[in-house]
Amino acid sequence: MKIVFIDTSAWLALINKSGEFHEKAKLVRNGLIEKNAKFVMTDYIIVEIANCLSRIPFREAAIKLIESIRNSEDIEVVRVNEEIFERLGIYTPVGKTRNGDSQTAQVLWL
Predict the structure, then answer these.
(1) For residue 15, is it within any domain?
(2) Residue 23 domain-assigned (yes or no)
(3) Is the pLDDT at 106 greater than 50, yes or no?
(4) For 59, which of 14, 51, 80, 95 is 20 to 30 Å away at the CA?
(5) More confident: 90 or 77
(6) Number of domains in the chain
(7) How far is residue 92's CA from residue 109's CA, in Å, rounded to a whole number?
């Protein structure tokens, strides 16, 4: 079984029907559903969704999305707490791009 972490940007692309990434997000999601992928996210992402969609015109959609996430048997919501946060590792490699600019990337792991 494939496990897929769903970040805030994916949820926002799925809910924003007029956004440039909406159709691609739907195709990816539907393909993963067909492959019986297991979806995982953190409770922080629910907070980010609520924050991004907190304006009055988007609140109803935000509430429906968050309720559907919380009630879904196909999405595991991992609660991030102090113990998990303290175990989080952060690695920041530094390199150079082709044109010589500095480049950094952060990788997080538990």
Answers:
(1) yes
(2) yes
(3) no
(4) 80
(5) 77
(6) 1
(7) 12
